[in-house]
Amino acid sequence: MNHRIQFPSSDAAELSPKALMNTTREITASDGEKIRWVEHGSGRPLVVSPALGTPYASWLPAILALSVDFKLIFVFTRGGGEGPTPQDPVALTVQRRAEDLAELINSLGFREYCMVAHSSGVSPVVVSLKHLNTPPSHVCLISARYGAGQPIGSEALLQRAREDSGFMSVVQSIVVGYSPLSAVGVMREWLRDFSRLEALLRAFELSRAFSYTEPLRTGIAMTFVIAEHDPDDVRKTTRQIIDTHSEEPWALVDVPGAGHFFVQDDGQAAAALIARSLSQP
Q1: CATH code that applies to domain 3-278
Q2: Model's pTM, two decimal places?
């Protein structure tokens, strides 16, 4: 039965003291770019699709907590930092990022697994579902916008950045507006590389222009998560997409007192929420 669940933000998992192994891997995508990911832990596979502009390090507390019970597959999304930074906008679309996810999961040959995604990492997950050889058993979608958002004016920002006096002000505006506090230093350093700045801005623009034009009718159990202090359009469009998803098994989690980057701000609590969400029927 479809239902709404309330999880207290203080419900946190304890970190395991055991040593965790991780290895960075890559395969070649069908368009010639690299698909990179890192693995942590053991158990049921859990594929993580992070938001653009949220580096791996900012997810680490949540990853370590989840690794106690799951084998984490953390994908370095193209345009997002550690991932490839192609300059062709065609290589940065939601559809292309979805194909990366599908190609990676299909190559790994999972028989049973889950997926979790945050913010701009959600749309590639939803689009990827129709390309997967074996669908996930459960999907957890956190703080996403399901309709088109306001454009960020990427080309105008890039033009400003090309002027020596404007480069760091553009970097600062992107870091402050689209990154968790835990990632500010890392993002400032990354974006000193102009090719990274170009790829990130274009990927942001393409992600914000994307909207879902058909109901989510996948037959897959889905948990939709929103935070109390998420932007209004995130909360509104999440409820709208649920209204068209009512024939499918779903749960809505509304996290009190939390902001858009709560996964990075309180990783252990977020890990507990994600694990409990994925255990719901």
Answers
A1: 3.40.50.1820
A2: 0.88
